[in-house]
Design a protein that fits this description.
This protein is an all-alpha fold. Helix content is 75%, strand content 0%. InterPro entries: ARM-like, ARM-type_fold, Armadillo, HEAT_type_2.
Length: 470
Amino acid sequence: MAQSGKKTEKLGIDWERAFDLYCNAIACDNEVLWVQATTKLAKLSKHAPEDVLACMVPVLVELLRRIPSTDLSPSIQEAAAHCLKCVACQGEGRMAVVIGESDAISSLLSLLLHTGGSLRRVLLKCLRNIVTFAARNREIVVRHGGVEIILNLLNTCSDDDLKRYLLEILSALALLREVRRTILISGGVRFLVESARCGSMVSRCRAAQALGLLGLVKRARRTLVDSGTFSVLLELLEVGDTSTKVVAANALGVISSHVDYIRPLANAGAIPLYAELLQGSEPMGKEIAEDVFCILAVVEENAVAIVEHLVRILRGDNAEAKAAAADVLWDLAGYKHLTSVVRNSGAIPILVQLLEDQNTDVREKVSGAITQLSYNEVDRAALANSGAIPRLLDMLQDESEEMRDNAAEALVNFSEDTSLGDRILDVLNSPSFQNMQERLTQIRASDAYLASSLRHMSIEHLTMDPAALI
């Protein structure tokens, strides 16, 4: 508002007098003057105070309802819609709310049904701004049958520009559950997918969010996949800004959480893109990438590719990414069908080295992964050969309780493995290990729970209960 005020002073406009002059012009029986005055108002709207704009909105809405005297008359409706479009952008959404409360939306929708050409173009741009800048206006559009109108226009539209405006409107409306239901029932999913493919990035991001929400409905997933959702969301995951990538990645994770769609998503090139997301700066993106990797890894061939990326990340210098990669390996190490995949990837020596990493989070996640690996006899041998035992013994003195617990749990598994020979004695004779006896007893008591946890997941589990990963 301060910046707007400075511009207003620079223009030297007395806004109260300007409003009176505008009302006087509208009161004249001269359509040309109406159009000229309203067009000038549209140009000045970005400088006008909000209270003045709020007073102008009812006048503009009334002009929308006026019917030109002849087909050759300048379109006052077009000028009014254009001005409302400009006003809707002001006040960080507040003016869009004022417009929605003025009953402008019903007039806009009514005109859309009976007009074409340049007027329809301006009407759509106006409606797009109204539903973009004020979420509550979307509900008003729905109440007036706007969803059906937009879908019908999309079915018959051959103009690319008009279609873009329609798709941007649809992406905003689709954030409402009832609209998504209508889209699904009416066969309009293809339009929602298309809205995620074209238009502004903000609109595409909204469409991606709506697709993810629609994917929560199990019966909708097949339609989404058949409509090309994977390709458009993967494109957004590749070219979108940070927030768009997170939204697209989450939507893909929701839609693919069924055994039938795990391979198609991986085959479409998802794994490298999620690996990039895992290395990004957005914490939510890392969490989503971890969750989706755990879903995709249910298929062993996917797991091989995923672990290759995780090992590469562990070798890098991005501490946050290394912690996230170790966290994924922690989960994957509990998948019974993947024990050899993790071991054969060369991850174990790297994990052991990272037990001495300077970053606390990295050490915690790595210690968890090593603990999980220590439940498998062959992995225990690989861990011991890589020097894990002395490092774990040292970790019993760590300030982090989680790391002490992880180290103790792993050492219990090592201490009971007679195949390790003298290295067991190193564990049993350690004063630190002996001092942890009571804590170790508690850890052993929790083993039964760990054995039945979700980490022991397989393709059969997904087949029996596809909803388990939603």
